[in-house]
Amino acid sequence: MLICDLHCDTVHKLSEYGLRDNPTSHVDLRRMLSAGYALGTFAAFVDAKHTSFPSPWDECLSLIGQLHDEFRANSDLITPVLWSGDIDTALSGGKMMALLSVEEGGVVEHDISRLDNLFSLGVRMTTLTWNYENTLACPAYCSGAEGAMPTVLGNTYIGGGLTELGRSFVEKCNELGIIIDVSHLSDAGFYDIAHFSRRPFIASHSNAREVTPYLRNLTDDMIKIISSRGGLIGLNLAADFLGGGDSESLVRHAIHIAKIGGVDCLALGGDLDGIPTNPYFPDCAAVPKIADYLLAAGFTSGEVDKIMGENVLRFLRENLPKQPCIY
Q: Considering the entire predicted model, what is its pTM?
């Protein structure tokens, strides 16, 4: 069984320890390899309103630089995946893969050409927003001076969809081969992506809203659309998203998403190092237990292999650039 995860925020845990062995984080290479990870997606997450850098763009570049430093320092264990051919090369060489993403596409501000820079630096996936309205789109809910807006369905932040610049952002991502991640988008933004994107897109760390009525989770209609377009939904391990955090709540989400969208759209997107520690899934070493819970719930071994990692590998083979890329 190969494990692939679509989202972690571990870059912000690297100041004291590196990526190889980090007791302060949910994720490090030692535990990932022991657990059987084939791929981890490392997000350059920028809180655009609380950056200590001259601009959010500068912070994004710094975080990407940190991640590349770690990949080079640990090249005996991990290698960036930049094009579809890298997948089989890494698997045959016994190395874990690193997919680089950006969480907060608004770092481009008004300059879509910055996507060319991000692509050249190895970025292969991006959200349009985090929790702030930006030049591209509105989020599912906003964070402000008083904290996050209420996240219950009866008291929602009514956000708009994509701006004109946001549509250009989507078009440029499609052209370059940067995968669009709809996690954190408003509902209107989701439907704009569904309308304007010519390529499959994913929700890297979002669960089912029908199971847990949380704004960052997906409606059944959204699940159907992602699945019908060949996309993926990564199960988020945050207790708020799951509605309890234990194995039973996670299984409920997996069963529901599989029922609505089919097993082929289901994946893992733990959001580790970006969420409060879930005592049931405290770090990446606990992720293999998910397979046991899914088997006990009635998923077949083949279905579990898909959910744990094979769906991600298939998606990346189909949707990453088909020619070698140098960063």
A: 0.94
With contact defined as beta carbons under 8 Å apart, do 267 and 276 qualify? Answer: no
Q: What is the pLDDT of residues 172-224, one digit of tens each?
A: 999 999 999 999 999 999 999 999 999 999 999 999 999 999 889 999 999 99
Residue 143: strand pairing partners = 148
Q: Residue 232, SS3?
A: strand
**Alpha-carbon span 198 to 282, nearest angstrom:** 37
| Length of the chain as a residue count | 327
Task: Give 243's DSSP letter.
Answer: T
At 300, the amino acid letter reads T
Closest listed residue to residue 165, CA positions, set 157, 156, 154, 173: 173
Q: Name 222's Cβ contacts closer than 8 Å, sequence gap at least 6.
A: 187, 190, 203, 209
Domains of the chain by residue range: 3-319
Q: What is the pLDDT of residues 271-312, one digit of tens each?
A: 999 999 999 999 999 999 999 999 999 999 999 999 999 999
Per-residue confidence (pLDDT) for residue 16, from 0 to 100: 83
Domain boundaries 3-319, corresponding CATH code: 3.20.20.140
Q: What are residue 179's phi and psi, to 5 degrees? A: -75, 135
Token pair 């890494």 is found at 90
DSSP per-residue letters across 76-114: TTEEE--STHHHHHHHHTT-EEEEEEEE-GGGGTT-TTH
Which residues, 6 or more positions from 80, have their beta carbon under 8 angstroms from its beta carbon?
68, 71, 86, 97, 98, 99, 100, 122, 327
